[in-house]
Design brief:
The structure holds 2 protein chains of 2 kinds.
Chain A: E1 19-23, E2 30-33, E3 39-44, E4 47-52, E5 61-64, E6 74-76, E7 85-90, E8 93-98, E9 107-112, E10 118-123, E11 130-135, E12 139-144, E13 153-156, E14 162-167, E15 174-179, E16 182-187, E17 196-199, E18 205-210, E19 217-222, E20 226-231, E21 241-244, E22 249-254, E23 260-265, E24 273-277, E25 286-289, E26 292-296, E27 303-311, E28 322-329, E29 333-338, H1 341-346, H2 377-382, H3 391-397, H4 405-410, E30 412-415, H5 432-442, E31 447-452, E32 457-464, E33 475-482, E34 494-497, H6 505-524, H7 530-537, H8 556-578, H9 585-609, E35 623-626, E36 631-637, H10 642-658, H11 666-671, H12 684-699, H13 705-709, H14 717-724, H15 727-730, H16 740-757, E37 762-768, H17 777-782, H18 790-803, H19 807-829, H20 834-853, H21 857-866, H22 878-885, H23 895-904, H24 920-925, H25 936-942, H26 956-965, H27 975-992, H28 995-1006, E38 1037-1039, E39 1062-1065, E40 1072-1074, H29 1075-1082
Parallel strand pairs in A: 21-25
Antiparallel strand pairs in A: 1-29, 1-30, 2-3, 3-4, 4-5, 6-7, 7-8, 8-9, 10-11, 11-12, 12-13, 14-15, 15-16, 16-17, 18-19, 19-20, 20-21, 22-23, 23-24, 24-26, 27-28, 28-29, 31-32, 32-33, 33-34, 35-36, 36-37, 38-39, 39-40
Chain B: E1 2-5, E2 12-17, E3 23-28, E4 32-39, E5 42-50, E6 56-61, E7 69-74, E8 79-85, E9 88-95, E10 102-107, E11 115-120, E12 124-130, E13 136-142, E14 148-153, H1 161-166, E15 169-174, E16 178-185, E17 190-198, E18 204-209, E19 216-223, E20 228-234, E21 241-244, E22 254-259, E23 265-270, E24 274-280, E25 286-293
Classes of the chains: A alpha+beta, B mainly beta.
Chain lengths: ~1100, ~290
């Protein structure tokens, strides 16, 4: 245990050379380190946090600034003269903070020149007052803080927003900015024409960095996964060196020491920061793979930024710099990583080389503390120093505007890189910070008013039963504790209980004495004593005599942590085997640290939940899931040994006598009538404890019978055997505390051996049950929707079903076919067929109901398509047709296209002999026109975007007559239902990869709706005839703008995702596709993917 | 029949084929997820995913229009999202809003977009939307006091474009022996309980919403009380009717229910290590359609 004294210079820093992990919740996005390396600043939408890295346990300073924009960048001024300046972005503005001012008034300047979000800020390396900003508005501005009203230099690339801007280290007039794939070099003296443009990346450049030593060398990192090193005095096209990585590179910088660079991935790359060497000279233009010499691995989410924290003795004439990497990640952990000697050597960093000029000396102080207020009296009056603790006072303590100090402390994890931590070290709580954390979670009623881990002082309040009048009354206590630096080793803390109206000084003295006694006894054994002291204060009896014997069990956390540690060690070794080979000892430790932390977190939340309430049900060992193709995936446990069950009942005996848990009520519910049914635990934790009990029975001497009685015992050893295999995970579970030490120490060994025992326990079967499913892919592939006549369609489909031996289905088709013929004949013979029509309707209704009951979606959808068209339209006299043809006239040259598309969509022509139809010759002479079924209003709706269309409805009386003559066989009120069937079937067709059939099917639905269903890229790609690319090359692409407001245009009809950017819009049907989607779709088909029937390609002048 | 035995060193808790039936994902108490490529009767292990810190209870494939994406849930309280890119599997997201074991994870019907439903023993269910810009928007609901064992989406019946999103429904089953049906409320931008179905006398272990929307909605719930109840609702509204799948009790506790693609066949499995298939006859009675034993 170390107490972190306030370091006076960097060499005394308590956190340097150690790894440290700090959890900071709150969506922080950007990070910067102060020039002295003592503080870091984190920026979020809520403002800035200033964290003192030398005293990580202290809550950070919070400078409020609420915005709704993510902070893109924050930069701490690197200059000693302006070491209190921090610049952060706030959308299109940059805020210059002066941390030496009070937090409420810390913004010194607002730089407002960009008109879109700022992406990067860079301080001038020589001039403290100058900084540059760049933005996605494509401008780069340079600002002088002496006149911050407007930028003194501006340049723009016009074409693309800037991602980064950097000043040259050598030439104070030169800076560079990255725009899209290119890097622009600017010279302030040459106005706003770029000095050079470096082109070479094939994707967005995310980061650039000038070489510190060489004026014209710059490195760039891009989304194309490459890091390129340029010398723009030599070549603007050919990089001097290219390093290829397997991830898009978010940031890459030269090392501030030696010859090397660090890169970090945008996504992937194990969320690590890679340090690589540049020592070996390569010939210009060389391309190599990234060969990291060190990998900082441990974050669980992508790294947002990495920075170097440096320490050296000011004024020294030798280079004694020491570095520590600071990373911030989306996983909300701020991590500090030590750099070891071998890394320095590998990048050729000659330490202790003599310097010509000593490094600048920075004031090693922190800005975490609020600057002292001016000493005048009035401010004192405004801010009384002592806070009177009342109900409202406590409330204020929990004010959400303040940082929860306890939560903050619990996020700090630290360990000394040089001391390899023994996993079974009893000293689990490594410092006061962790002790406070654990206790804070354990005793939610205890309020920590002040936590200062660095000075070892705490102030806490609680209510205990110390009233002299009435022992049931709780008395409010406020206690100051001061912990000596080498606590807990033989140095007890001092307690001071504040004077209280309800307690007289004698009583206080008495309590204090007892507290001192408890703490002394504990610390004599080198134990942390805060918990027993608090238990005492809360009214519990503390038996100090058992301290010696029960030292292991006194704090159950210790046992828990054993399990946790044990697990983390197992896990990290697993991870190591899978991870890249470049892991060093320290990074392994960090990994463990991380594991440890996460499992600790899990523990905290779970223990808060109380184990008894862990209601996770027992795992499923057997199950079955259906697949789209009618296969059933089943999984089983493959062990069933009857003789084992025998054993089991025998074993039940002794355990049963120990005592059966009475709490397990629900089991009675299903056990009442079948006693032979194996009793089974219901909760997962029970199976865990049961299997442990089993384990303890066989593995260890059974002196833990007490604990055994405390959990459920149940009968089926078969089950035990299954569950026993879970032992590896059991080691981490908090259940463990139930068993005490003896089990805990055994578990890890046993766990491994049991895993090997537990082979051959499970099996997965995939069995085909498609014969049970009514919907068949084979049928779908051959069924047709449209043909010369409905009867022909029915006949064809009946044959298809017959060919597959599906007599029922074939019969169904035939019946409907016959009905249609019959209907035709009646229609011809006699005009008054209405009564009979009702009979037909009833018949169809019955058919549909039968199919609904047998859940045959395929047939339902087929019928709802085929019977949807009023049959009469197909066999009107020629005269009626000609009048119909006059119904819609377009004053638009595309009219021919339009009708053509309609006709084309009915394409599949059946030339089979059609004996159903008595008037085959009539049918053959006509092309069915689907457009006939469109009611005029729908036509208007569909084509409302076409210019210059005039729609006239003529012969409306005849239209009405026609409409009356052709009632649908399907009940129109059920139309939504039928649409739903068609939609479901279209999904089935999609599963089966029958895309053309699906498009045909969806035509029926698109007749009623303007919003068309989706169709997206099908990766399996069925053998469809490919059309030459040029056939759609002439399709016009256009960028969509927001003015087009109706829905169809915004969703790609191919992938169903929103369309932004390049898209094709069919001039006829107005359906939209991404340019890419259109390309792949039109290789497969000529029709619109929405199924509207439009032949989009023909709508364009294709050459 | 393809058989994969002893793929995992410990109990398997779920096995799911992807959309095309080509890839099988299994998960186990050994904390791993394995991906197999299945071709007729042959299979090949292509990947083992490590990342969970506890037994992995369930996996679910997202619809392929979102990419090759798998969600998994575990005793460690986390839902992990895995993605295959260029033949490599990476963990792309963590959904960690639950404080206890996450027992079930399900992707919504693809029409709704990338929504994920997770049920946890902390008594809550969460619905997460993975938005295009990479952010997530979780809605966490208190569902069943003692713990939620399962949750399942209703299939997306055809509705008109935007309004279908408003019709989102799902069902949860919990340790309070109840089954609850939830519906999205656009006004409140959350999900509200539409119906609470009482019928089981012990923990509900699985609920499954039939993927077909024929005459009525079908829900199957299986429970620790060794019964399976089929709940039906006419026209997506009105009261739910309760039918026991089988009048007498099953020989052992039931764990799992799964509907075939158009809701023809229901597969039930449980502690007796058997899978039974069920089918509704024309009279509306449920009858056995087969049995699978290992």
């Amino acid at each position: 245990m170390t107490i972190y004294s306030q370091a006076e210079n960097a060499h005394d820093s308590s956190t340097f050379g150690k790894s440290l992990s700090l959890r900071v919740d709150g969506g922080f996005n950007a990070l910067s380190v102060s020039p002295s390396g003592r503080d870091v600043v984190l920026a979020s939408k809520q403002g800035l946090y200033v964290v003192d890295l030398d005293d990580p346990f202290s809550a950070p300073r919070w400078l409020h600034h609420l915005t709704s924009w993510e902070v893109a960048d924050v930069q701490w001024s690197p200059h000693a003269s302006k070491s209190s300046w921090v610049v952060s972005t706030s959308n299109q503005k940059a805020l210059v903070w002066n941390l030496s001012r009070s937090s409420s008034n810390a913004i010194e300047h607002v730089l407002h020149g960009h008109f879109r979000a700022i992406t990067d800020i860079n301080f001038h390396p020589q001039h403290p007052e100058i900084l540059a900003t760049c933005s996605i508005d494509a401008y780069v501005h340079s600002w002088d803080m002496r006149s911050p009203r407007r930028a003194y230099y501006s340049a723009s690339v016009w074409s693309a927003g800037a991602s980064q801007v950097k000043w040259n280290f050598k030439n104070p007039n030169v800076m560079a900015s990255a725009h899209a794939n290119d890097i622009f070099i600017w010279d302030l003296r040459k106005g706003c024409t770029p000095l050079h443009v470096v082109k070479g990346h094939s994707n967005n450049v995310n980061s650039i960095d000038f070489n510190r030593a060489s004026e014209t060398e710059i490195m760039s990192c891009a989304n194309d996964g490459t890091v390129k090193f340029w010398d723009y005095s030599k070549s603007l096209q050919e990089p001097q060196r290219t390093v290829v990585t397997d991830f898009p590179v978010a940031k890459g910088r030269y090392l501030p020491f030696g010859k090397g660079f660090c890169v970090m991935p945008f996504v992937g790359g194990n969320n690590s920061v890679y340090l690589s060497s540049n020592v070996t000279e390569s010939e210009p233009g060389a391309v190599s793979k990234l060969q990291p010499i060190y990998v900082f691995k441990g974050h669980t989410d992508r790294v947002s930024d990495f920075l170097w924290r440096v320490k050296y003795s000011g004024g020294s004439t030798v280079d004694d710099r020491d570095f520590q990497l600071v990373t911030w990640s989306k996983d909300n952990d701020l991590k500090l990583w030590p750099v070891n000697e071998s890394t320095y050597e590998k990048v050729d960093f000659q330490r202790h080389r003599s310097l010509e000029h000593p490094f600048t000396e920075y004031d090693y102080s922190t800005f975490r503390q609020e600057p002292l207020r001016s000493q005048n009296l009035s401010s004192h009056a405004h801010f009384p120093k002592e806070r009177f603790v009342t109900g409202s006072g406590l409330k204020e303590f929990h004010d959400k505007n303040r940082i929860n100090h306890l939560a903050w402390v619990s996020g700090v994890r630290m360990h000394h890189a040089e001391s390899p931590r023994s996993l079974f070290d009893l000293d689990k709580l490594r410092n006061l910070g962790e002790e406070v954390t654990v206790i804070g979670h354990k005793f939610p009623k205890v309020v920590f008013e002040r936590i200062s881990v660095s000075t070892g002082s705490l102030t806490l309040t609680l209510s205990g039963p110390w009233s002299e009048q009435n022992p049931d009354d709780l008395v409010f206590l406020r206690i100051d504790c001061v912990f000596p630096p080498n606590y807990p080793f033989k140095s007890p803390p001092r307690f001071k209980i504040e004077e209280n109206r309800e307690l007289d000084s004698k009583k206080i003295e008495e309590i204090t004495d007892q507290l001192q006694e408890i703490s002394r006894r504990h610390t004599d054994l080198g134990k942390f004593c805060l918990e027993p002291c608090l238990r005492f204060l809360l009214g519990e009896k503390i038996n100090l005599d058992v301290l010696q014997e029960e030292e292991q069990l006194l704090n159950l956390d210790v046992v828990d942590s054993l399990g946790i540690n044990d697990l983390s060690s197992l896990e990290s070794s697993d991870m190591r085997s899978g991870a890249i080979s470049v892991t060093s000892r320290t990074s392994d430790e960090d990994e463990q640290d991380l594991d440890n932390k996460s499992s600790n977190d899990g523990y905290v939340s779970r223990s808060a939940h109380a184990l008894d309430l862990d209601s996770t049900p027992i795992p499923k060992g057997c199950g079955a899931t259906w697949t789209s193709s009618g296969k059933l995936v089943c999984f089983f446990t493959t062990e069933s040994k009857p003789e084992k069950k025998q054993q089991g009942t025998q074993r039940l005996g002794p355990r049963g006598s120990v005592g059966i848990h009475t709490e397990n009520l629900p089991e009675q519910l299903y056990d009442e009538n079948k006693p032979h049914v194996p009793k089974r635990p219901k909760r997962y934790v029970e199976t865990l404890s049961a299997s442990s009990a089993h384990n303890s029975e066989t593995g260890i001497s059974g002196n833990d019978s007490d604990s055994d009685a405390s959990f459920d015992s149940f009968g089926d050893d078969d089950w035990n055997d299954i569950m026993r295999t879970d032992i590896t995970l059991r080691t981490k579970m908090p259940v463990f505390s139930n068993f005490g030490k003896s089990l805990a120490s055994v578990a890890s060994d046993d766990g491994k051996s049991n895993v090997s025992v537990a082979k051959s326990k499970n099996a997965v079967f995939i069995q085909d049950f498609s014969h049970l499913i009514a919907d068949k892919r084979q049928l779908a592939a051959e069924y047709i929707f449209t043909g010369d006549s409905l009867e022909a369609v029915c006949k064809h489909n009946a044959n298809v079903a017959g060919n597959y031996g599906l007599e029922n289905i074939a019969h169904c088709w035939k019946m409907v076919g016959n009905l249609l013929i019959d209907r035709d004949e009646r229609h011809n013979a006699n005009f008054g067929w209405h009564q009979n029509g009702e009979g037909d309707k009833q018949f169809i209704k019955d058919v549909m109901e039968f199919l609904e009951r047998s859940k045959n979606v395929q047939m339902l959808a087929m019928f709802s398509c085929i019977l949807m068209d009023p049959p009469s339209t197909k066999r009107d006299s020629v005269g009626a047709r000609s009048s119909e043809a006059n119904i819609i006239t377009f004053e638009y040259e595309d009219q021919s296209h339009f009708s053509q598309s309609r006709q084309g969509s009915v394409a599949p022509s059946i030339r089979s002999e059609d004996y159903f139809s008595p008037r085959q010759h009539v049918v053959k002479n006509r092309k069915p026109r689907l457009s006939n079924t469109l009611t005029p209003s729908e036509v208007i709706a569909q084509h409302s975007l076409l210019p210059d269309i005039r729609i006239e409805i003529m012969n409306s009386s005849e239209l009405g007559f026609l409409g009356g003559r052709s009632p649908s066989l399907l009940d129109p009120s059920d139309e939504p239902k039928y649409r739903s069937y068609r939609y479901q079937y279209s999904e089935l067709l999609f599963y089966w990869g029958l895309l053309i059939n699906r498009a045909e099917l969806l035509q029926f639905n698109s007749k009623q709706e303007n919003t068309t269903p989706d169709l997206w890229h099908h990766s399996l790609g069925y053998g469809l005839d490919l059309r030459a690319e040029k056939s759609y090359a002439g399709v016009s692409y256009k960028a969509l703008n927001n003015k087009i407001s109706f829905l169809t245009t915004r969703i790609c009809n191919y992938c169903e995702l929103q369309v932004l950017g390049r898209a094709t819009v069919c001039g006829n049907c107005q359906h939209v596709m991404h340019a890419q989607c259109a390309k792949s779709w039109w290789e497969q088909s000529i029709e619109c993917p929405s199924g509207c029937g439009c032949q989009c390609i023909d709508m364009f002048d294709v050459t | 029949m393809a058989t994969i035995s002893n793929a995992h060193s410990e109990l398997i808790h779920d096995a799911v084929l992807d959309y095309y039936g080509k890839r099988l994902a299994t998960c186990s108490s050994d904390k791993t997820i394995k991906i197999f490529e299945v071709e007729n009767d042959t299979h090949k292990l292509v990947e083992t995913l490590h990342g969970h810190e506890g037994p992995v209870w369930q996996v679910d494939w997202a619809h392929p229009k979102f990419g090759v994406i798998l969600a998994s849930c575990s005793y460690d309280g986390k839902v992990l999202i895995w993605k295959e890119e260029n033949g490599r599997w990476v963990q792309t997201a963590v959904h960690a809003v639950h404080s206890a074991s996450v027992n079930s994870v399900k992707w919504a019907p693809h029409e709704y977009g990338p929504f994920l439903l997770a049920a946890s023993s902390d008594g809550k269910v969460s619905v997460v939307e993975f938005k295009e810009n990479g952010t997530t928007a979780p809605v966490v609901l208190d569902a069943h006091a003692i713990g939620v064992n399962t949750a399942s989406w209703a299939s997306a019946a055809l509705q008109d474009g935007s309004s279908s999103l408003q019709e989102r429904r799902f069902v949860t089953g919990g340790a309070d022996n109840l089954v609850k049906v939830w519906k999205y409320s656009p006004e409140a931008n959350t999900y509200l309980v539409q119906d609470t179905l009482e019928g089981h006398t012990d923990w509900v272990r699985d609920v499954a919403w039939s993927p077909s929307m024929l005459l009525r909605s079908y829900l199957a719930s299986v429970s620790q009380d060794r019964t399976c109840i089929i709940w039906t609702q006419e026209n997506n509204q009105g009261p739910w009717k309760k039918t026991l799948l089988k009048d007498d009790k099953f020989p052992d506790v039931l764990w799992r229910a799964s509907w075939s693609l158009s809701g023809n066949i229901l597969a039930i499995s449980g502690g007796d290590n058997k899978v039974t298939l069920w089918k509704e006859n024309l009279e509306g009675k449920w009858e056995s359609a087969g049995e699978v034993e290992q």
